[in-house]
Amino acid sequence: MIDTHSHIYLPEFDQDRHEVVEKARLAGVEKILMPNIDGQSVRPMLAVEEMYPDYCYSMMGLHPTSVKGDYEEQLSNVQYWLGQRDFIAIGEIGIDLYWDKTWEREQRVVFRKQAEWAKEKGIPIVIHVREAFEAVFQELDKVCDDRLKGVFHSFSGNKEHLHKALEYPGFMLGINGIVTFKNAKLDEVLKGAPADRIMTETDAPYLAPVPYRGKRNQPAYMKNTLEKMAEVYGITPDEMDRITTRNARQLFAIDH
């Protein structure tokens, strides 16, 4: 398994990070991909990558909920780091209108700019979308061409959102613990997506799957999500693992 989206560099893991990584290894997680949030999270993230070389991989990006009045300065910081070294993706980027719509215009600008950088660098984008599918699709339609690829992280849309998301040929759907929540009905929506467009993720420390719902999520719990996904597709967990791992390796160009 590859956990394609995990924030294990956050303070929630400061007391037991090594144990969390060991549990992940024992559960069969062979890689953990870490999206950035903003200027404050870069160094903690890179420090974790350094602690676990060839196991934890960093992305670079500005999260939509961190887009405020200083967004230009924050964007400059992202651009600086992109010039310093290689990252496996630009993320986590996107639009979030759940808490606050104040900065919607700026979020759209920041999203488009980072998508353009991804095209220039030939790396995928990791899209955060919450209460904002229409806005994200509008902005994607402006910048998307055959150079842009990526993943709709923590996908939890309806059938119409799914259909539209799959129209972007280079894009995958990132599925996490939400698929195990009965009230989310994501399992029904997911039946409309081919397995070769799906990847596994946790979004740790958030969105722990049943039976851990409400607790701190961690990469080892991805096994529960994978089992539910296998049930949805009517295949074995091993086969689901093989497909989703292959998808992640291809999208993020991880070949070892």
Automatic annotation (TrEMBL):
A matching Pfam family: TatD_DNase
PANTHER family: D-AMINOACYL-TRNA DEACYLASE, HYDROLASE TATD
PROSITE patterns: TATD_2
Similarity section: Belongs to the metallo-dependent hydrolases superfamily. TatD-type hydrolase family.
GO molecular function: DNA nuclease activity; hydrolase activity, acting on ester bonds; metal ion binding
Coiled-coil region(s): none
GO-annotated cellular components: cytosol
Binding site for a divalent metal cation 2: H128, H153
Organism per entry: Marinilabilia salmonicolor
Protein name: TatD DNase family protein
Residues annotated as binding a divalent metal cation 1: H5, H7, E92, D203
CDD domains: TatD_DNAse (cd01310)
Keywords, in A-Z order: Hydrolase, Metal-binding
